[in-house]
Amino acid sequence: GAVVSQHPSWVICKSGTSVKIECRSLDFQATTMFWYRQFPKQSLMLMATSNEGSKATYEQGVEKDKFLINHASLTLSTLTVTSAHPEDSSFYICSANRGTGKGEQFFGPGTRLTVL
Amino acid sequence: DQQVKQNSPSLSVQEGRISILNCDYTNSMFDYFLWYKKYPAEGPTFLISISSIKDKNEDGRFTVFLNKSAKHLSLHIVPSQPGDSAVYFCAASVGAGANSKLTFGKGITLSVRP
């Protein structure tokens, strides 16, 4: 099956610092990756679509200068939360589609961000 | 406006019985539907999907039924096992390509009692 990894799995940082989260597709190439966030007992909310070699597409209401996305290769996308504040504390999850036409996205294990 | 709705937040069933998880959608453009299983602090795991050209898809203990006219789908798990206890998310997309975005419901917490 398709494997997607994320690093780190959890991070605690001080308010005002920036945090980078990596998402890797381990056994397939992904021209497109997706970034979600999930608040407790809520659904997964799509933040942005990450496209290899081009700018990310952000969903309405998501600040692109706050959540910087870079998709430098076919197996790696990064999300940087800049100048993090306590309200940015959440569970961030990435996913990728293998492009087989079957539509299913394979998700990483998620990153728990806590901003103090 | 929620386009994918899972109106029941939780479901409890006895081991060995059938679990039926329901999902409704409002966007008639959706033509691909998926079910994911999620444990706390982990990413969702893909279970089963169905295209709008079908009304049923089966994979082992899991069957998904689609009623396009009612904009309703359901996931049946038979027989239910304690290891099935998790949160189940229904998701929908327009198309099944690599760029297709998924819209998720809020999830249903399934508890299977031994």
- Total DSSP E strands of chain A: 11
For the sheet with most strands of chain B, the description reads:
6 strands, mixed
Low-confidence stretches of chain B: none
Overall form of chain A: globular
Treating each run of at least 4 consecutive H or I residues as one helix, how many helices of chain A?
0
Architecture overview:
The complex is a heterodimer of chains A (116) and B (114). Helix content of chain A is 0%, strand content 53%. In chain A, strand 9 and strand 10 form a beta hairpin. Chain A is globular, with a radius of gyration of 13 Å. Helices cover 0% and strands 53% of the residues of chain B. Chain B contains no helices and eleven strands. In chain B, a hairpin with a 6-residue loop joins strand 4 and strand 5. Chains A and B meet through strand 5, strand 9 and strand 10 of A and strand 4, strand 5 and strand 10 of B.
Task: State the main characteristics.
A: 116 residues, 53% strand, globular, B: 114 residues, mainly beta
Write the layout of secondary structure elements.
The complex is a heterodimer of chains A (116) and B (114).
Chain A lengths: L3 E4 L2 E4 L5 E7 L6 E7 L5 E8 L5 E2 L8 E7 L2 E6 L8 E8 L7 E3 L3 E5 L1
Parallel strand pairs in A: 2-11
Antiparallel strand pairs in A: 1-3, 3-8, 4-5, 4-9, 5-6, 7-8, 9-10, 9-11
Chain B lengths: L3 E2 L4 E5 L4 E7 L6 E7 L6 E7 L4 E4 L2 E6 L4 E6 L8 E8 L9 E2 L3 E6 L1
Parallel strand pairs in B: 2-11
Antiparallel strand pairs in B: 1-3, 3-8, 4-5, 4-9, 6-7, 7-8, 9-10, 9-11
